[in-house]
Amino acid sequence: MKNLRIATFNVNGLRARLPNLLAWLEREKPDVVCLQELKSVDSAFPAAELEAAGYGAIWQGQSSWNGVAILARDAQPLESRRGLPGDEADTQSRYIEAAVHGVLVGCLYLPNGNPQPGPKFDYKLAWFERLISYAQALQASDHPVVLAGDYNVVPTDMDIYNTRSWLKDALLQPESRECYQRLLDQGWTDSLRHLYPEDRLYTFWDYFRQHWQKNSGLRIDHLLLNPALSPYLHEAGVDAWVRNEPHASDHAPTWIRLSSRKRR
After folding, report:
1. Which of 18, 216, 223, 260 is deepest in the core (most CB within 10 A)?
2. Which residue positions does UniProt flag as site: Important for catalytic activity (predicted)?
């Protein structure tokens, strides 16, 4: 294992936020990046701009919605899967996977699920079940694996500024939280919570009611590590400065740093 900085970032529209993304890449220089909500077709992906910034990429776009990508600094990701197994009728672009710098990286954008109850929430839970089934073999692998992305789940009340106005939201429903916990129970390590068990850390601040200015945030972007990778976890954090930039996404990049040596 070599020293690596792996990040996940819901860009909320790649073309609209490309200057923000490039500025962040230049300043923080992550080795691997999982992007969500590209909101553009494959042909509109800015591969040339990212290559000029030093990043190879694979992506799965979708017009106006969804879309995921994996970027690698000074390397080209080797794609191993696009789309979760279990539902051939599902055409939404929400999962892509690649070998990058010695790590198997799964990049995911889990369905939001609102409004609930209803078909969108049913789809969220069905997609989550497919993820849980697929993740079992990844968790048990001897190869280092990270599942990173926007999970659209607030795991506990500690991961939100206040539950009062969110009680009916799909992100906080018991079913959503139970799915996330079942995923962790396979043996995955929730990186940020593992290193900061008592801290209120947020990765998302919506555009309403000055939630960014008041730090009224949610933690919904997660990097889960399998047992082969978790001993190398050294640092984790949120590049909150990106959320304060002009025309920012409502998410901030969330990252981990892996050390070449196991943590004692």
Report:
1. 223
2. 221
Phi, psi of 9 (to 5 degrees): -150, 115
150 annotated active-site? yes
Residues 6+ apart with CB under 8 A from 260: 1, 2, 3, 232
**The pLDDT value given to residue 2:** 77
Query: What is the model's pLDDT at position 263?
Result: 77
Give domain status of residue 58, yes or no: yes
User: Mean pLDDT score of the chain, rounded to an integer?
Assistant: 97
In the annotated binding site, the residues are: 10, 37, 150, 152, 250-251
Is there a domain that residue 29 lies in? yes
Q: The CATH number of the domain where 155 resides is what?
A: 3.60.10.10
This prediction's pTM: 0.97
Say what the pLDDT of residue 35 is: 98
What's the pLDDT band for 264 if we cut at 50, 70, 90?
Answer: low
Catalytic residue (one of 31, 55, 101, 150)? 150
Quote the number of domains for the chain: 1
Strands, DSSP E only, in 66-113?
A: 68-73, 78-82, 95-100, 103-109
In the residue annotation, 74 being an active-site residue is answered as no
List 55, 95, 109, 232, catalytic entry? 109
Encoded tokens for 225: 């590590």
Q: How far is CA 221 from CA 78, 91, 109, 142, 167, in A?
A: 23, 23, 9, 25, 19
In a domain, 264, yes or no: no
On whether residue 263 sits in a domain, the answer given is no
CA atoms within 13 A on the CB side of 119: 0
Give the bridge partners for 222, in sequence order: 149
Catalytic annotation present for 134 = no
**Residue numbers of the domain that contains 157:** 4-258
